[in-house]
Design a protein that fits this description.
21 strands; alpha+beta; 370 residues; 30% strand; single chain; Jelly Rolls
């Protein structure tokens, strides 16, 4: 389709095209004048790159030369690398409540896109949080916080500031509690197909991040093991908090292929955009070019990491249930019952599973008189 230029009906590309005019150029209905605003058009979700250029998820850039008749437009189509971008909002209710089933269903609806993304599983989600929630995080982003860390380590991280939730005001800290909660884990499990995810209550390496002019973070893969909790790192969730972000500022998240031969995607860190990706030994990413932001403009984000436990724990510890003991002065019936519970617990560890299930079933039948 390179060079396919000609007159097209607007409805062939954006059936919902309505809109208003900026200097004689028609803008899709519902799109504000703010650049990089996302909107849903005829071909899934499209991202507004500028007044006259639009990128859709079918891997094409559409450059519009619009006449006063909004029913037709002139387009020139150019091939572009597809960004795995969708528009979806977590179903958060007032009070930071979210139904686990609804959250998981949303994740599962995006799973195929996530796991099939190249060069490694990832997804970019615009309008990820409810608007008011994202706005409040930006509003409460602290200028100074107790315990904040500063990084001046060159390619390893330059002009970077990290703030742990424990150093934030209560309302902001509550947002992190929500992002570490069961319903969010259900969304992520549904999305990535990774069961039994665990959030990090200590936010190792995470929390609020801020990078100022000239700052950067080299291309890297993340640490694989949380040595404090002995957990395996599996997913990253980044939420950007930057309004009116200009391409000229830089700071795009670069997603590189697994042999570090080329950057596959560059993701602008715009307001309320989330990037979720699987972490492994070759999930290279970063923003290695220094930020070119004007005075007073920084690159702000939320960073959270999610883990799984190793099944090797079953080689190190017996998978016993709660162990009950009678008090010395309890009557004999309590002592007998506590002993039976301990015995069944130990038999679960000692016997092959098939024999333990047979014994447990026989015990239930005897108890029920069947």
């Amino acid at each position: 389709m390179v060079g396919d230029k000609g007159r097209k009906r607007v409805g062939e590309i954006f059936p919902q095209f309505g809109g208003h005019s900026i200097d004689g150029t028609m803008i899709p209905q519902g799109v504000s004048d703010e650049k990089t605003k996302s909107f849903c058009g005829g071909r899934r979700c499209a991202s507004w790159n500028s007044v006259k250029s639009y990128r859709t998820l079918d891997s094409h850039d559409y450059t519009f030369d619009v006449t006063s008749n909004i029913d037709t437009i002139d387009i020139e189509v150019e091939e572009a690398m597809e960004l795995n971008l969708v528009n979806a909002t977590l179903p958060v209710e007032p009070g930071l409540h979210m139904d686990c089933g609804d959250a998981r269903s949303l994740g599962e609806s995006l799973r195929e896109r996530y796991i099939n993304a190249a060069p490694y599983p990832h997804i970019v989600i615009d309008d990820f949080l409810p608007y008011e929630l994202a706005e409040d995080i930006v509003k409460r982003f602290p200028e100074k916080a107790p315990g904040e860390k500063h990084f001046e380590a060159g390619y390893l991280g330059l002009h970077k500031r990290q703030i742990l939730p424990a150093g934030c005001e209560e309302n902001l800290s509550r947002y992190f509690d929500f992002l570490n909660s069961g319903p969010v884990l259900q969304f992520l499990e549904g999305l990535a197909g990774i069961e039994a995810l665990i959030s990090d209550p200590y936010f190792e390496g995470g929390g609020l991040h801020e990078i100022s002019a000239g700052g950067k973070l080299g291309i890297h893969v993340d640490f694989r093991i949380n040595e404090r909790l002995h957990l395996h790192r599996r997913l990253n969730l980044l939420i950007y908090l930057n309004r009116d972000w200009q391409d000229s500022y830089g700071g795009h998240l670069e997603i590189w292929d697994r042999d570090m031969s080329k950057a596959c995607h560059r993701v602008a860190p715009i307001f309320n955009r989330a990037v979720i990706f699987s972490t492994d030994g070759s999930s290279y990413h970063g923003h290695a070019d220094p930020l070119a932001t004007p005075d007073g403009v920084t690159r702000k984000s939320v960073a959270l990491y999610y883990y799984t436990a190793s099944k090797r724990i079953y080689e190190e510890e017996a998978a016993l249930s709660t162990i009950y003991r009678a008090r010395p002065d309890d009557d004999k019936s309590i002592h007998r019952e506590a002993f039976r519970l301990r015995l069944m617990n130990n038999l679960r560890d000692w016997l092959p599973p098939v024999l333990f299930r047979a014994l447990a079933n026989a015990r239930r039948r005897l108890r029920d008189g069947k």
